[in-house]
Amino acid sequence: MKRITALLLAIFISLSVLVPAVSAESASFIYSGEDIEELYYDFEYVSGMVEGVFGKSDGLAYWTYAEDMKDKKVGSWLIDVSSKIIGEEPDEKYYTEVLTNMIALLEYDTAEQIENQGQFDKMKNLGEYALDVVDIGATVIGLDDELDGISKAVGVASDGIDLVLDNVKQIKYYELTIRNYANAENFLKAVNENSDNKMLAEAAGELRNVNELLFKERCKYIAESVDSTGTFLAKNFMSDLSFSLLKNLKEYKKDQLVKDYVDYGEKAYKALDRLISTGEAVFKTVMIGGDLLFGTTNTFRRHNEMSTMADIAQAIIAEYSKIKVSPDMPAENLYNAIRTKSEFYKMLIATHLRGEYLIYSLNYNDAGVLSSFTKWFDQNIVNENQSIKKWYNTQVDCCEKYYDMVEDIFERLMSEKFVVEGGFELHDGFIVEIEQKDTVPEGYIGVYSYDDFRKIADSCPSDAFITSIYDVETEYNTANYILMNDITLPADFDSAGAFYGILDGNGYTMRGLNKSLFETIGGAVIKNLGLEINFTKDTDDTEYSFGAIARGLNGWNNGDGSHIDNCFVKGSIDITCRSGYFGGLIGVADGAEMTNCYNEADISIKTRQGGSVGGICGEDADIINCYNTGDISLHATCENTFNIYSIDVKVGGIQGGNFYDKTENCYNTGNIKASANGACSVYSGGVLGYNYGSWTFVTDIKNCYNIGRVTCDWTSDYDATKEYGFALGASYCAGGIVGHAGSTVRINGCWNGGEVVGEHFVGGIAGRVNDDSDDAITNCYNMGTISAVQYAGGIMGKDVYEMGMKHCYNMGVIAGGMHCGALAGGINDGEECFEDCYYLDSIGPATPAGIDYTGATPLTAEEMAKPESFAGFDFVDTWKLRDDHTQPLLKW
Amino acid sequence: MKKILTCFMLLLLLVFSLSCAKESGAEEKESTPEEKAERYYETIRSIGTEGIEVEVKSVNMWNDYEGTAAIIATIPDYTELFVAVYGEKDMTKALAKAIRREEFTTIKYEGTVPVSVVAGEQVVNSEDTVKDFVEKELIKAINAVMDLEGAE
Fold first, then answer.
1. Nearest CA-CA distance, residue B54 and chain A, Å
2. Residues of A with CB below 8 A from B92's CB?
3. Touching check for B55 and chain A: CB below 8 Å?
4. Which phi and psi (to 5°) does residue A780 adopt?
5. How many whole angstroms separate alpha carbon A174 and alpha carbon A143?
6. Radius of gyration of chain A (CA)
7. Which of A236, A398, A552, B76 has its CA 20 to 30 A from that of A680?
């Protein structure tokens, strides 16, 4: 009897340790394949933010401190010998206690699942569920002895579904027991296999056996308590199935490790127990209060535990980094991977919170405080406007926010957010639905095979300089073609030359592309065409441009009149060259119009002299209703240059650079990375890397959003002072929507949810703004975390002239050094620039010194949920309240 | 005769083996750096236990089961010790050496601690209070050294 429905199990049990032996045979799913796909995109959104904020030591005081101490030999020596003198040096017992405390927290999380019981409300068939739980116990865990009892409990022996339903409470306990076991196993395995701290790793390894012992005892207890187990309640789980279950075993008396595990676990339980009676969000209450009473008040213990927490955090990160999450995976594997990785995220956040609690507590130690520590804390963590208490509350709020976000993935709240906020859905096929034509329309030539397409290619000569329309009409291909089949191109495919006609893909896809379809197009229309490409190029060409449809727009009218509509690109593009323009569809577009297109290809460019890259096109197109999901990066080595303005590195989710063309209704979910080593200017943006703008007319960036991670890195290992007598300089900006917005660029109705990271000029909407109008940025908001060394702002990093910002708000965390603010990090001359702008009061440094924040109002989370808090916002035409009443959203 | 020769050869072999074993045993006695460090640590740990003296000055019982005691704890001056070894090439070794040679003075703390009765015997529970005294002194010592480090 194999009644396992892998996906159902995955949903309820969903643990990596269980996955390999499970196979799908039937489908009584709660979530459909489409749901899982949506879940994937929700997860991608959350994953980028969680890993960006919690996956590195920046912004986490305890971890930064632990790393700093490792570098300071005298400091760490003093803590080490003092710990030895006072009897607090980390030993096996210490590591057992620290790990057991963390496991106790995981158990409380499990208890909270029981308290909420929401997952069980969604079940459609409890009988199936019960039998599945039994099967997984038998099939995967292989607990033969216990299985007899469990089988009895669920009536498998008599095959009585009624009995199963009667005893469903026991099954719930059993399922939670499996979940809890696997969570602890995953946690301990991560530390056991990844930690460089040998003693910690060994302690985790030994505790894995004890965890298994507890699991088996729990299974036995549930099986034997068919008639006596009470209501399915958290407190019953905590009392009947807790660490104390091991107390009657001979192992407790004979094995010191088991005894320590039980004793420490009970001690932690006792400290936390009063909270369970609240019946509320127990684990979160524990976290929010920072009320982790277990452990000690000893200074040296706290210092050592901070280092241990940093070791544990690194081990967790190493473990979850091994988990691959890809939309190409089968649904059940994808679900399991997402669930397991999410559990690791929660463990990581709990670890961080414990670490931050320890460092916070050190400031209030009765025995006295290390002056070097407080000095370090004051210099590196809090600033003059922020008390330690406020800093700690911010950290707790941030942890809670992200913890909730991870949990919400499975409540599908984020899916709603996507539909409501984005206004778009991701597509398997074309954005605009196509009814494929069976017959070739009048005025078109049908293309049924590669041979047919080769004929078109042969009639498109390599481009030359064209001086008039006459040249085009007489020398070049201006005919209209329509694809009548999917076409697979041969490995030796060579690009067609210049094309000036119409190519209607008719909803078909050209596969096996390993070069641009055309060298150039001019005044052409390419529509309804899918492209699958795998392109790799390493060239010394001075300037090399590339896009799957065409390398560039060229000819007598350049891009004017060219229109790319309803096309997509999938696959990968990998280019190494000197410089150029690179896009998923078009390299350089010269003013062409691109609508309803998307790119899913990952694009990786390495140049020696800068360049522009974007998911849709490298530079200069009017782009409307397009999106990108591919990861896009450009790294430039900037060889032999010393003028920062001579080389630009521009990377955007939609396009790298843009002069005067508009960008509307576009979004990006891919990771965007611009990096350079040497003298150059580096710009990255979720939608646009650099938008020049014009002094004469307005260039719009409108109704766009980004949820990808945007980074901008600049380094220089070349000492120019020796050769040129002065040091190299660099300019670098990163923005959730645009890295640098030039003069007369107006940003309206945009939002960012992705993390934005850079050194200077980093903003949730724009890194740097050059426009001096009153409405340079209007009706925008940011939810992403913004990190910079200096000039980090929730909406804008810094302006160049006196720009104006209206009707904007920020809820994203600001993590930075100097000149960091809730809305703007810097404002030219510090003058007033805000009108009816708002920010969440707990997001980090709010008002940088020397800036007039008049017109910007801090709001609590509760106030954020009320339209009346947002004076000046138009809640009729522009804004609305989010469905779950937590914040305003744009209506479009 | 042949048997005697064989016995003699075996005896010779045995003596040779024992001699080799003794030599190799002598080599094994050479301490590894880790073993040396562990010995230094043992000395350092001892100053947190054997280096501390607790004198009970008076006991005041509230009833037959509980009460308080006035104590004087004599604790090594860790500041003096840490500052003395600061800057040494091997500070651990220098600290262990200074402790072994008792190159430090002591500080006296007075306090009141709880007293309980266990199996008819009065037990003065001074451990936690003394630990607090030691912690304060250690923190003072660390601050002093870190100030020196900062000054450089």
1. 15
2. 77, 81
3. no
4. -125, 155
5. 13
6. 30
7. A552
CA distances in angstroms from A416 to A335, A422, A424, A884, B83, listed in the order given = 19, 10, 12, 10, 63
Nearest residue on chain A to B92, alpha-carbon basis: A81
pLDDT digits (tens, 9 = 90+) for B128-141: 899 889 988 998 99
How would DSSP label each residue in A581-626? EEESSEEEEEEEEEES-EE--EEEEEESS-EEEESSEEEEEEEES-
Residue-range domain boundaries for chain B? 31-151
Alpha-carbon distance of A194 to A180, in angstroms, equals 21
CA gap A398, A411 in Å, rounded: 20
For A415-469, how does the pLDDT look when each residue is reduced to its tens digit (9 = 90+)?
Answer: 333 332 333 444 556 788 888 899 999 999 999 999 999 998 888 877 544 444 4
Per DSSP, helices labelled H in B29-151 are: 33-46, 78-85, 91-100, 127-151
B64 min Cα distance to partner chain A (Å): 30
Query: Mean of the pLDDT values across residues A702-715?
Result: 88
Contact call for residues A698 and A735 (beta carbons, < 8 A): no
For B82, the closest chain A residue by CA position comes to A78
Domain residue limits, chain A:
31-87+296-411, 89-276, 631-890
Q: Do you know the residue count of chain A?
A: 892
Which among B48, B92, B142 is the nearest to A370, CB-wise?
Answer: B142
Number of CB atoms found within 10 A of residue A413's CB: 17
Highest mean pLDDT among A281-290, A724-733, B85-94: B85-94
Is B44's CB within 8 Å of A299's CB? Answer: no
Q: pLDDT by residue (tens digit) across A77-89?
A: 898 899 999 888 8
Which is it for strands A879-881 and A888-890: parallel, antiparallel or unpaired? antiparallel
